């Protein structure tokens, strides 16, 4: 359950930090602007493609994605993102401080699927999951982590202290700094 919650919470940041996805937006999507900073932006009208390259930083609602290149594939009208492909040192940090890294991240809006490819890793505090690829099925609340030829899937989870374990007192909170995106 912790793995699923950790991975699924990363997905909105992938979608939001990459670009707006669908017309069915939440209140946050309607009120929060998306900002993309990059060294270069190139638009290919006939292909319905926009490419951001060079130190790309995409932010929305205190979630952020970093990559060297982000390709955005739009529908025929150019008003809906169908797919995004991010490459080059991809790092995503959600507003609740969950982090994911990979060599490549692909988001498919119609399928509500995100795939982190190449040395994929997702973590929150000390809990971590890693593999060659991590695929998140957003609408199904399901994830698959696959190992590669060289390494197997690795996961490390730490139990949270409960009141019962702590002698009836409230569990102490970690003193980690709040997430600053």
Tell me what you see in this structure:
The structure is a single chain. With about 180 residues, the protein is mainly beta. The protein has a single domain (about 1-155), classed as lipopolysaccharide transport protein A fold, CATH 2.60.450. It has two helices and ten strands; from the N terminus they run ααββββββββββ. Strands 1, 2, 3, 4, 5, 6, 7, 8, 9 and 10 form a ten-stranded antiparallel sheet that branches. A hairpin with a 2-residue loop joins strand 3 (about 50-60) and strand 4 (about 65-75). The longest helix has 17 residues, at about 1-20. The two termini are about 25 Å apart. Mean pLDDT is about 80; it is low at about 1-15 and about 15-30.
How much of the sequence lies in strands comes to over 45%
Largest sheet: 10 strands, antiparallel
CATH topology heading = lipopolysaccharide transport protein A fold
Structural class: mainly beta
CATH uppermost class: Mainly Beta
* Number of distinct helices: 2
- Pattern of helices and strands: HHEEEEEEEEEE
**Low-confidence parts lasting 5 or more residues at pLDDT below 50?**
1-14, 16-28
Task: Please render the helix and strand layout as text.
Blueprint lengths: L1 H17 L8 H5 L3 E3 L2 E5 L4 E12 L2 E12 L6 E13 L5 E10 L4 E12 L2 E11 L4 E5 L7 E3 L25
Antiparallel strand pairs: 1-3, 2-3, 3-4, 4-5, 5-6, 6-7, 7-8, 8-9, 8-10
């Amino acid at each position: 359950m912790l793995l699923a919650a950790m991975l699924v919470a990363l997905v909105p940041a992938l979608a939001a930090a990459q670009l707006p996805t669908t017309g069915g937006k939440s209140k946050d999507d309607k009120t929060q602007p998306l900002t993309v900073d990059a060294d270069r932006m190139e638009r290919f009208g006939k292909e319905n493609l926009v490419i951001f390259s060079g130190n790309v930083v995409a932010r929305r609602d205190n979630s952020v994605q970093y990559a060297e290149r982000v390709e955005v594939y739009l529908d025929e009208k150019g008003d809906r993102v169908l797919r995004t492909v991010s490459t080059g040192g991809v790092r995503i940090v959600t507003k609740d401080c969950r982090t994911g890294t990979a060599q490549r991240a692909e988001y498919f809006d119609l399928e509500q699927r995100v795939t982190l490819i190449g040395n994929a890793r997702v973590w929150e505090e000390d809990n971590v999951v890693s593999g060659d690829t991590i695929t998140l099925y957003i609408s199904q609340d399901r994830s698959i982590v696959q190992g590669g030829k060289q390494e197997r899937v690795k996961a490390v989870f730490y139990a949270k202290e409960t009141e019962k374990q702590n002698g009836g007192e409230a569990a102490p909170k970690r003193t980690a700094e709040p997430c600053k995106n």
